[in-house]
Amino acid sequence: MSLLTIYQYPDSALAKRADEVKEIDGQTNVLLTNMVDTMYSANGIGLAANQVGVHQRAIVVDIDSEDRGKKLVKLINPRIVESSGQITWEEGCLSVIDYSAEVERAAKVLVRGWTLDQKEVDIEAEDLLAVCLQHEIDHLDGTLFIDRISRLKRDMYSKRLKRMAKSGQTPDGERIPPI
């Protein structure tokens, strides 16, 4: 087990599009295992590889915080192949400290990707799982949830971060479970 460093907004690594995984091998397994450990340690429900500085298209998701591992999803080269409906969800993020906002997403998605044993899988998802998968796939495209909110709200958050950094404050308070 190795915990990885989670990059924080506004680090430019978070804005970079991840590359497709060309070969699923032992290194891919180690990466996903470390990502799961890191996600659980940070009390998150999702993590994309580029959030930990690895620009490969890989995500881990586990929306069941009561029974960790039971609904764990590890996907390589995930992509949304179908979407329908619309839902607004309060999102947080392990890379966006001390902030959450309502984001509009597709209510249902069909995501296609590869497993560690090199099998192509389809995942039909709705509600929180759909939101989480879209959120993590956005990360792989270099998009954060705050890129999906108004410029005014994003600017206010950036100013708050700058004030906190100047004063030496650390974020605190109630947090939405980060995706």
Fold and architecture overview:
It is a single chain. This protein has a single domain (about 10-165), classed as Peptide Deformylase (Alpha-Beta Complex). Helices cover about 25% and strands about 30% of the residues. It contains three helices and seven strands; from the N terminus they run αβββββββαα. The chain has helices at about 25-40, 125-140, 150-165, and strands spanning about 45-50, 60, 75-85, 85-95, 95-105, 110-115, 120-125. The strands form two sheets. The protein has a five-stranded antiparallel beta sheet with strand order 1-2-3-6-7, sandwiched between helices. Strands 4-5 form a two-stranded antiparallel ribbon. The radius of gyration is 16 Å and the shape is globular. Mean pLDDT is about 90; it is low at about 170-175.
The CATH superfamily label reads: Peptide deformylase
Percentage of residues in helical conformation: 25-40%
The neighbouring-strand order within the major sheet is 1-2-3-6-7
The helix/strand series, from N terminus to C terminus, equals HEEEEEEEHH
Number of strands: 7
Rg (C-alpha, Å): 16 Å
Attribute tags:
five-stranded antiparallel β-sheet; Peptide Deformylase; alpha+beta; 7 strands; 28% strand; globular; 179 residues; two-stranded antiparallel sheet
